[in-house]
Amino acid sequence: MKFFWIGLFLSLFGYQSFSQNTDKNTLSGTVESETGDALEGAYVKINGKFFWTSSNGKYTAQLIDGLHEVHVTMIGYESVDTVVKLDQDLQLDFKLSPSVTGLEEVLLEGHEHKKTSQQVLYVDNEFIENQFSGSLASTLERMPGFNAMQIGSGASKPIIRGLGLNRVAVAENGIKQEGQQWGADHGLEIDALQVENLEIVKGVGSIAYGSDAIGGVVRIKNNTTPSEGFSGNVYSFAQSVNNSLGSSVKLSYSQDDWFIKGKFTGISFGDYSLPAEEISYLNFNIPIYDEKLKNTAGKELDWYGQAGIIKDNFSSSLSISKVYQKSGFFPGSHGIPDISRVQPDGDARNIEEPFQRVTHFKVISNSNFIYENGELDLDIAYQRNHRQEWSLFHTHYSGQEPPEVNPNLELDFDLHTYSTRAIYHHNFNRDHETQVGVDLQWKDNDISGFNFLLPEYQAGNYALFAIHEYKASANNLWSFGLRFDYGIIDMEGYYDPNLYEYLIGRNQPEETARAYAQRSEDLNRDFSSLNARMGWDHSFNKNWSTKINVGTAFRLPTAIELGANGIHHGSFRHEQGDPNLDPEQGFMADLNLSFVKDSWNISISPYAYFFSNYIFLKPTGTFSVLPHSGQLFKYTESEAILTGLELAVDKEFGRWHFSLAGEYLYNQQLTSDRSRNFPLPFTPANNLFTEVGYKLFQDSGVFNLSELSINNRLMMEQDRIAQGEEITTGYALWGLGWQNRLNINGFKASVNLRVDNLLNERYFNHTSFYRRLQIPEMGRNIQLNIKIPFGGS
Amino acid sequence: MKDYLKILVVLLTVSVFTACSDDDDALDSEKPTIMLNEPENGEEFEIGGELHFDIELADNQGLASYKVEVHSNSDGHTHSVVKQQEETPWSYDQTFQITGNPLTYDAHEHIDIPEGIAEGEYHLGIIVVDAAGNQEEAFVEIMLGHHGDDHDDHDHDHDH
């Protein structure tokens, strides 16, 4: 492993010296307004690399010979696109005409790509549509340091730096998404195709987002102002691996100072194909008929509506959305393996029991007030996450009768979350800005179903925070943050008379039976946590820059960690909470070093976390008395370290483009006994993603931005496993892509063709929910997507 | 300031690389193994008679305990649910400690099958845990019934 990275560094330096031998010329010029005024700070994008004009409107770029796409934008002006051929030094001047919608854009986009000391990856809707692979997190998997925890073909959730589940926060328009994140078989209830802009903040985001933002924050921004008049697009895709068909329609209308938007997505997918004829689970060989995994079909139906108003000193938007997902679980390994349930039913698109169904309804109001030296953001939201798991009624206690209503409803969690966030930004002068914020959240979780896992609870979280940014010079930005959280949780006890009867029938003493039958206790806890962060963004010169962050992170224990007690059908083990857990507390340091020159873009980010009490499920070595269960798994806290390194390299050579994203992870518990220092669960293996692309038809009027690419995703063997996990062998997946923007006599369309897992490799994903069940991942997948825009500019 | 930065870069890089050379050898994450000699998948036993099992357990560092359990496989079986209306299905579990953490252990036990239980398909499960807490499980399907009965309504078309 060590040699691999050293080799990589050496080969990078090799590339760099090679690049210096190619011919380079200077492209320079000025950007002016129509009236001849020099424009400072105009944005000149050349082949994906950014330059800003100086105070006299000048820009300069060192470029290799060949064709270059130049894109000039400036807030308040119409942007200009052109292609230049460079074989000698060239001066290229631009005159920009003022845009009509200029002022509105200033208000909304003023904060985008703002300099920050945090490590942020920016993703736009176009990237998501090009790379779409069924769900949001799996679509983003090629980003360095980002992995997806997959659940079948239509659901996934994010892992940043090996931290997932409740250790990554997802926020839309400033409001944290609240579902049942703790479950490995629960996906993220966000419609990927409706995402307008997205930022992946790596590292601790605790100051602004509070509990859970330990590994990072996925920040979705869905309130961009649409272009004037009526505009929209239709995006459709088809996938071969699960015969998936989907379509997303986006419509918007904007006039004067108001706008409305509507988005609709429908996806239907069938059972997915995998290159296996049988799988082996708990000593059973379970046949897979026609290489299709039975009952993994699903569907998704989402809508989103937004209305907004933009005034000089005030802007506001109201968004209402609903995500509905229904997908089946493979019945052969749901609980005890059973061959009779995997016989083909002749229908690859039906969804039978067991299946999960989840509805996420959300109303978000975002308002922004502008004052002379400051701004106030006020976000108010209500969201309801209703998750149900259906399975034919079954019981392990002879006395239990099926419920009269919904006899096959196994688990039902109904979580209502109310959030309010107010942040006041104050600019003391050009160099000092302070934000002061209040963050309030109230959660109410109801349960039903014939099985018990998670108790009913109410939880509140109240926080005050402040962030100060000091721009010491053009090359130095300091940021300091402080946050205090106070949280309460009130859990309802749950007594299970069926279990009591069962245990008495099994000749257990009455005391033991009563203790076990009390599945969870009434519990009232309160927590507090104080967190701080410091960050520094520094540019050494125009090529080298760095970001350094140190800080603390925390997470309030979840209801499941405090009060679970039962057999989780998905993981098939007795999981027990610990009502005495404290908030998880971590200390983090990370560093990013970046080099930008001549379309070289290299960044290296090492990081390290120390947790004083990392909470995870630990096997106790003692058998549970519950039927069907092996040993008892208990939520336990342990000191732990977690460290890693991310590397990203991008480079263009003429029409060739080369990119690489690598990730190395290492973590372990720290206990007094070295033989107990096991790694932490759900850690992705070290991995490397490489892509080489070639631009086609550069002079064609029909094919624009056409690029053919080949990629490889290399996963090393994961042999550093937590107890209860299995070693996952390494694999290499090949993929092909061809993206195009067609323009046929004014008819425009984006057409993308992609092949994933080209060689139909049989592999396991260590962080997939199906890994434990020994189910391999999806086979070869061919995907076509077409987007047709209409209206607008 | 630049010197501090250089030191920090070096320290972080070194710490990441040295983390590779870990001492994982001390960790036992290897599961024990279960060799189920008896019963075989689909084997039939007499209600009121004896169920015997013979298993070989092994582990790289030391076995700790195992659990045997029997329960009806009524889940998702419409015909067996109908059959079991009259009599209650049998369920059994027993934990056995393995003293001295040996590397191999042969378990051979006889379990009485009580009278008056529902006949049909059952699961026999063996779950074993080693000293480090690694767990392995194995299941077989067995038939419990009355010999001499005409199994006219007994429809077992499973392929084993």
Automatic annotation (TrEMBL), chain A:
Q: Which residues form the TonB-dependent receptor-like beta-barrel domain?
A: 365-758
Q: Where is the TonB-dependent receptor plug domain?
A: 114-217
Q: Which organism is it from?
A: Christiangramia oceanisediminis
Q: What SUPFAM superfamilies is this protein classified in? A: Carboxypeptidase regulatory domain-like (SSF49464), Porins (SSF56935)
Q: Which PANTHER family match?
A: HEMOGLOBIN AND HEMOGLOBIN-HAPTOGLOBIN-BINDING PROTEIN 1-RELATED, TONB-DEPENDENT OUTER MEMBRANE RECEPTOR
The protein's name is TonB-dependent receptor
Q: Which family does it belong to?
A: Belongs to the TonB-dependent receptor family.
Q: Name one Pfam family in it.
A: Plug
Localization, per the record, is: Cell outer membrane
- What PROSITE patterns does the entry give? TONB_DEPENDENT_REC_3
Q: Which GO terms describe its biological process?
A: siderophore transmembrane transport
Q: Which UniProt keywords apply?
A: Cell outer membrane, Membrane, Receptor, Signal, TonB box, Transmembrane, Transmembrane beta strand, Transport
Q: Which GO terms describe its molecular function?
A: siderophore uptake transmembrane transporter activity
Q: Topology versus the membrane, per the UniProt entry?
A: Multi-pass membrane protein
The protein's superkingdom reads Bacteria
Its GO CC terms are: cell outer membrane
Automatic annotation (TrEMBL), chain B:
Tree of life domain: Bacteria
Is the keyword Disulfide bond in the record? no
Which InterPro entries does the UniProt record give? DUF4625 (IPR027829)
Which PROSITE patterns has this protein been placed in? PROKAR_LIPOPROTEIN
Under Pfam families, the record lists:
DUF4625
Q: Where is the signal peptide?
A: 1-21
Q: Which Gene3D superfamilies match?
A: 2.60.40.4140
Q: Which UniProt keywords apply?
A: Signal
Name of this chain's protein: DUF4625 domain-containing protein
